[in-house]
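User: Some background: our group keeps a shared notebook of sequences we're curious about, and every so often someone picks one and asks for a predicted structure to add to the entry. Today it's my turn. The entry only has the sequence so far, pasted here. Could you supply the structure so I can complete it?
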Amino acid sequence: MATAPHLFDEQQRLLQPPQFRLRTLMIVTAVCCGLFALFSVVSLLLSTFIVLLLVLIGAHVIGNAVGTRLRDGAPAPELVIDDSQAAQIQAADQFAGRPQRLRETTALDRRTILWTATGAIAGGILGGVGLSVVNWANISLPAGILATCSSAVLGGLAAFLATCFITTLRCAWREALDNK
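Assistant: Of course. Here's the predicted structure to add to the notebook entry:
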């Protein structure tokens, strides 16, 4: 059995500072030089956005690395299981062992493609006509075509997302009802 100071030493070993090589230091220095050169060209607002984005990405990577290191180094707890808990665990294992359709990779359904095309056509017609009516005096032919195409893309994307969501929801609902 581990004593308290021994556990503290193991935890300190898991949280050692990161180690890197000279090559990594030179790459980071070159990237910082490139960023500083970019900051001298772009505006202050864009520079701030870039710095915040890089800090967010760095915090995510560091948090993931520390969490993985702590998870992998954590001692496994000893479980004491009585007969009633063993029966519950066996029933859960049998349920988890059933094949699940949501894990399968499948091609797009024909209905998904049909609804996406319908959404693109409806978005193009409604968006193009709507933008033309609102800006009738100021719209040119290329602007009307661009408005119609962009509305079609947005309509198709919205229909695709909605169709995929509904299809996945229906599949999950059917699977949940089958596993009762």
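Suggested note for the entry: The chain has a mean pLDDT of 82. The radius of gyration is 28 Å.
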